[in-house]
Amino acid sequence: MNFKVGDKVVVIAGSNKGKEGKIIRTLRKENKVVVEGVNIVKKHQKATGMQAAGIIEMEAPINASNVMIIDPKTNKRTRIGHTTDKNGKKIRITKKSNEKLD
């Protein structure tokens, strides 16, 4: 999986298609990501020591194949490529504009 926490992505498939947000968590073993404000589900929460009982809304994970990164230069969705910099370190780049990703 080529995604990292903080990447800005757009959903390309499913009921949340077209929504944008930042990745807040990655689940590498399951090949899923949690995107801020996308795939909101309601969870019935039992009361614990510090938390009250009730129905809370939270983001559920979605498959990483259903999101694409947003190119910082063109603000359009793009694929991720890899290359090496002058020091020999592997870096991520966008395929559309060859822009370096953090």
Largest pleated sheet: 6 strands, antiparallel
N- to C-terminal separation?
Answer: 15 Å
Report the CATH architecture: Roll
- Helix content estimate: under 10%
Query: What is the name of the CATH class?
Result: Mainly Beta
Structural category is mainly beta
Strand content: over 45%
How many strand segments?
10
Q: Give the mean pLDDT.
A: 95
Order of helices and strands: EEEEEEEEEE
Uncertain segments of ≥5 residues (pLDDT<50)? none
The number of distinct helices, counting runs of at least 4 residues, comes to 0
Return Rg in Å.
17 Å
Say what the CATH topology is: SH3 type barrels
Question: How does this structure look, described?
Answer:
By secondary structure, the chain is mainly beta. The protein has a single domain, classed as SH3 type barrels (Roll). The chain has no helices and ten strands. The strands form three sheets. The chain has a six-stranded antiparallel β-sheet, with no helix packed on it. The chain has a two-stranded antiparallel ribbon with strand order 4-5. Strand 7 (67-70) and strand 8 form a beta hairpin. The radius of gyration is 17 Å and the shape is elongated.
